[in-house]
Design a protein that fits this description.
Elements: H1 2-27, H2 36-48, H3 66-76, H4 88-99, H5 110-119, H6 126-142, H7 145-153, H8 165-173, H9 182-190, H10 205-221, H11 228-231
Helix pairs in contact: 1-6, 3-9, 3-10, 5-6, 5-7, 9-10
Length: about 240
């Protein structure tokens, strides 16, 4: 009986691994129709008795403001072009900080955020973290850095029911994602840690300061010229 159980578990894992690899490979070329987070937000709204309309329009890489691409990297993951999906020093620093108590600090890279939002549910369980690591490894293996950032920008949450750069640009500034200015891009990037509590179009003093810091970091990264690094970063 034990051997039979082990064989079934191995078979189940093999099917899961094969299925997830095929899914990630397909999404390397096909725009994802939505994300797990979008489904979660929709279900939560039903239970709350306040249904929401999800806003999202997929925009390809060349129709998204370069300033927004660099602003998101500057604010969320400045080692994006060079890591393999995990920023180990940042993870160690966050772990040490959290061990000392106080407000929890995260250290998720853009790749990890794509894996979590695209494929998984919210939460902090070890199972979800393990699956997040698995999917992060897959997208780093099979997608280019440009593709990871493209999916991120089309999947990130920027307000209640507002997902992706195009919906965010329309919702907050009434323009297309391709026309976002440097300041508007930095304000969108500034609210990403808490998009349901902060507004990009009506920034609080804290969000305004964070946006200013992001613009400084964009300069240090080399501005939109930084994106050339993504063309030569690891990827198939």
């Amino acid at each position: 009986m034990l051997l039979s159980l082990i064989r079934r578990l191995v078979r189940a894992f093999a099917w899961f691994a094969a299925g997830s690899i095929v899914l990630v490979l397909v999404l390397r070329w096909v725009p994802p129709p939505g994300t797990a987070l979008m489904v979660e937000r929709k279900i939560d709204s039903w239970f709350d008795g306040q249904p929401i309309d999800l806003q999202r329009d997929w925009e390809p890489w060349d129709k998204i403001s370069d300033d927004l691409k660099v602003a998101v990297i500057a604010g969320e993951d400045q080692k994006f072009a060079t890591h393999w999906g995990f920023d180990i020093p940042a993870i160690q620093a966050a772990f040490a900080h959290n061990e000392r108590g106080g407000a929890l600090r995260g250290a998720s890279t853009l790749s990890q955020q794509v894996a979590k939002n695209q494929f998984l549910w919210s939460g902090r369980s070890w199972l979800r973290k393990g699956l997040e690591a698995w999917f992060t490894g897959l997208i780093e293996l099979f997608w280019s850095k440009q593709r990871i950032l493209e999916v991120y920008l089309n999947s990130a949450e920027w307000g209640e029911g507002v997902f992706g750069a195009q919906a965010a640009a329309q919702h907050h500034f009434g323009i297309d994602a391709s026309r976002l200015s440097r300041q508007q891009a930095s304000q969108l990037a500034a609210v990403l840690p808490s998009p349901l509590n902060w507004s990009a179009s009506r920034p609080s003093p804290y969000v305004a300061r964070r946006a200013s810091w992001i613009r400084q970091q964009m300069n240090q990264l080399g501005g939109t010229g930084y994106l050339v690094q993504l063309e030569h970063a690891r990827g198939p």
